[in-house]
Amino acid sequence: MTIERDDAALEAALAAARGRTIPPDDLVARVLADAARVQAEQMAAAPAPRRAGWVQGLVAGMGGWRAVSGVSLAGVAGLAMGFAAPDLVDAWSGGQIWALSGGAGTMPEIGALWDGAWEEFGDV
Amino acid sequence: MSQHQPADSRLSDGALMVLFANGDPGAARVLTERLLPRALGHAARVLGDRAEAEDVAQEAMMRLWRAARDWRQDGEAAPATWLYRVVANLCVDRLRRRGRTDPLDDPDLAADGAPGVVSQMVEADRIAALDAALASLPERQRQAVVLRHIEGLSNPEIAAILDIGVEAVESLTARGKRALGAALAGRKEALGYDD
Predict the structure, then answer these.
(1) Is the C-alpha dihedral spanning B26, B29, B33, B34 positive or negative?
(2) Distance CA B27, CA B40 (A)
(3) Which of residues 8-27 of B touch A (CB under 8 A)?
(4) Domain residue spans in chain B?
(5) What CA–CA distance (Å, rounded) separates B66 from A51?
(6) Superkingdom of this entry's organism (chain A) (predicted)?
(7) Nearest CB to B180: which of A10, A28, A30?
């Protein structure tokens, strides 16, 4: 019986303490002021959207990096084909490249270019 | 014109945290209404000092605001659990700084708003006796008992708050409740239970 009464006493005390604690108004005001200050700091510190530079603008104008990559790849492929099989390229053009280049064809003589440069600037 | 819609009081605490981080001016008010009483109540019971409890509750809420920016609804604990953990740790710091665990006689700890003068006095006596008994418990037992039997949290929630296992919580609350009962046994008169 004593144990039951002790349990009842404990439960009564716990139940009394379970009542909702009401924070005083000045504490609520302090907490809300803290919240407003922290919120303002965090909003001010949030990174602003970055302005795109001229390179990004150019790339965007060409259709994005994917399009730029495609153009670059096509250029490199054309150059490689020209070096690897210049006669084939000339044949595809119907001999136009040969005719327009004055017989130099698609692959100028590298040695001739070198000699030409020396004739232009003379011995140093 | 406000950039954000006012916080909806039906939203979860986690959703309100996200709204707060997005600059919603009403989210802080709803979160304060929900969480501040719990933080204050827990701190007051564990510390036995209303002024110190208010400091702890304000500090814990400040940490909550600061945590909002990185809050993830899916990965974090519930804000209430997170806040209880902060309050528990701040209370431990304060108790260790005090270097003592004896109760402080603080009449402000009596229940707020009990109806009728006589019943209010009886209830205040019961709470004062309970606070004195709580203060006699070791710090971990006290935290566990307050969270379980006064704040009404589940054992897994308490385990997350105190960073211990569920079995340890069960052990702490059982031993704590027995010790409380023993401490209150000699004070039945104060509790309104005459033999």
Answers:
(1) positive
(2) 19
(3) 20-21, 23, 25
(4) 8-100, 102-195
(5) 29
(6) Bacteria
(7) A10
DSSP category for residue B111: P
Token pair 């709803």: residue: B30
Phi, psi of B65 (to 5 degrees): -60, -45
Contact yes or no for B113 and A24 at CB 8 A: no
SS (H, E, C) A2-64: HHHHHHHHHHHHHHHHCCCCCCCHHHHHHHHHHHHHHHHHHHHHCCCCCCCCHHHHHHHHCCC
Among B56, B121, B193, pick the best mutation site for testing chain A contact (most A Cβ within 10 A): B193
| More confidently predicted of B96 and A77 | B96
DSSP structure class, residue B4:
S
Assigned CATH topology for domain B8-100: Rna Polymerase Sigma Factor; Chain: A (1.10.1740)
Q: For residue range A15-74, what is the model confidence (pLDDT) as tens digits? A: 888 877 899 999 999 999 999 999 999 888 776 555 556 566 666 666 666 666 776 767
Question: Which residues 164-183 of B have a C-beta within 8 angstroms of A?
Answer: 177, 180-182
Q: Which CATH number fits domain B102-195: 3.50.4.10, 3.90.1150.10, 1.10.10.10, 3.100.10.20?
A: 1.10.10.10
Choose the closest CB to B181 out of A10, A22, A38.
Answer: A10
- Residue of B25, B30, B32 whose CA lies nearest to B8: B30
